[in-house]
Amino acid sequence: MTITTTLGTALITGASSGLGAIYADRLAARGYHLILVARRIERLDALAATLAGKYGVEVRTIGADLSLPADLQRVAEELSSNAGITMLVNNAGVSTMGQVATTSRQAIAAMDAVNVTALTTLTYAALPAFLQRDRGAIVNIGSVLSFHVLPTSTVYSGTKGYVMNFTRGLQQEVAGTGVTVQLVLPASTATEIWELSGVPLTQLDPATVMAAEDCVDAALAGLDQGELVTLPSVEDQALWEQFDAARLALFAGAMRCKPASRYGVK
Questions:
Q1: Is 23 a catalytic site residue?
Q2: What is the pLDDT of residues 48-60, one digit of tens each?
């Protein structure tokens, strides 16, 4: 039996595995219809059949490589034209760990295309309709590497830093409306992205790696609680508050017309 839902439809990118597949399961369990987007259509179709049978929701699939302009445009058109979509989960991401000088141009281009361009394009496609209806949620998956850089994460951290600033700006734009924009900043999470990035999970301390299910459950709990920024693994919320306060203080301290005295400029 198909569920008739007032929650609407959630479109999830990168839904064939990892966090995206868990988001699909959890949102279907809540009663959302789904549109699942990923490159691996066989996996998507298998997941769609499982979720439709398990939860009685409608599940469609779109096979798309979001690094390709034509595929990205197809998904963007779905978002802009489908009035039933009430949630966008920008989960798709690409990671290649390595120093800039030894990383291929293709790998850098793929990170830029998926982590930055696709996320921005799909948000832009969904947002006007959400604002017009005064209803909708956008969930952008960043990373703790949005605010930290390793010698091997320069490009990836750069793209995820964009996700953080882009999302924080959007939150200010939609303040006071019925549209919610959540930034999720996971730390190390047990997904396939590690193997694809060139850093196997076996090289990480197991005590620092969160299960994908736990990460998504925490992120959804944060969404339910109205968090603008959710760090699933951070126990002390004051750490983020101190970080954000320091950012604002630094910005305020930069707003002066003269060079700092340490430069000796008269």
A1: no
A2: 999 999 999 999 9
**Residue 263 has which token pair?**
């430069």
Q: Give the residue among 172, 206, 208 at the shortest CA–CA distance from 188.
A: 208
Residue 9 token pair: 């439809």
DSSP state of 133: H
The per-residue pLDDT for range 13-41, each reduced to its tens digit, is: 999 999 999 999 999 999 999 999 999 99
Q: How far is CA 5 from CA 27, 33, 51, 164, in A?
A: 12, 8, 15, 32
Q: Tokens 């193997």 belong to which residue?
A: 195
Instruction: Say what the pLDDT of residue 227 is.
Output: 97
Could you tell me how far CA 216 lies from the centroid of its own chain?
A: 11
User: What's the rounded Cα separation, in Å, for the pair 117 and 215?
Assistant: 25
Q: Which helix (H) or strand (E) holds 10?
A: strand 9-13
* CA atoms in the 13 A half-sphere facing the CB of 152: 7
% residues pLDDT > 90 (the chain): 88
Angle CA 244–182–185, to nearest 5: 60
Class of domain 9-263: alpha beta
Strands annotated E in 54-212: 59-63, 85-90, 136-141, 179-184, 189-190, 210-211
Q: Which of 2-11, 57-66, 147-156, 164-173 has the lowest mean pLDDT?
A: 2-11
- Kindly name the residue from 32, 55, 156, 162 that is annotated as catalytic: 156
pLDDT in tens, 104-162: 999 999 999 999 999 999 999 999 999 999 999 999 999 999 999 999 999 999 999 99
CB 167 within 8 A of CB 208: no
Domain ranges of the chain: 9-263
Could you tell me where the DSSP H helices lie in 179-235?
193-197, 212-224
